Amino acid sequence: MIQRFKPLRAAVLLGLAEIAFLAMAQAAPSLRVVDGDTLVLDGETIRLNGIDAPEIAQTCRSARGRETRCGKDAKAALEKLAAAGPLECKGTELDGYGRRLATCYANGRDINAQMVRLGHAFAFRKYSLAYVKEEELARKDHAGVFAGTVQAPWEFRARKWQVASQANNQAAPRDCPIKGNISSNGKIYHTPWSPSYGRTRIDPSRGERWFCSEDEAIAAGWRAPG
What we know:
Blueprint: H1 2-27, E1 31-35, E2 38-41, E3 44-48, E4 51-52, E5 60-61, E6 67-68, H2 70-82, E7 87-90, E8 100-106, E9 109-110, H3 111-117, E10 122-123, H4 132-140, H5 153-167, E11 178-183, E12 186-190, E13 209-211, H6 214-219
Parallel strand pairs: 3-8
Antiparallel strand pairs: 1-2, 2-3, 4-10, 5-6, 7-8, 8-9, 11-12, 11-13
């Protein structure tokens, strides 16, 4: 009799294990890192409060003068930090683009602070002084981008904007260089510092258009890539 019920018992235990695994998978938050200061958690876009990381398309110079892809390095660093443990993001305020501003903790550690301390982001002094100390320490230790030459992300964006506006890119209205593209992914707008900006073409006959600001693009129903 005991032998007869062993396979049934094993099947029941296996079934229970599968149910437990599925429950854990469903409970686990979905996470996607967009760049060095933005992530999508359970479908919600979150902007890490108080920091500004190099843009994905941005490059820097190492201490030896070698060009580095510091924007992509910042994204990789955030992916690693966010995966270090259970992720919790605290904050309720929204920025001008509808993203939630938050301080995120992985396994209880402030990853906003870590990104700055490791030299993968700047303290965003224009909006917060929360991580000024971490930046000062990173500069002192020549950590990350502070080991060589780096342009502040806000300066990089301003320069890209200026160049795109002056170039009158593909007949763009002056000072309105944002490309409102329509693809299989929907209505996506591309800023001059977007990695795909240069290869994106605008066809007004398809309903595509130019925007003068990200606010304008969002209000018209377009969204940022990523």
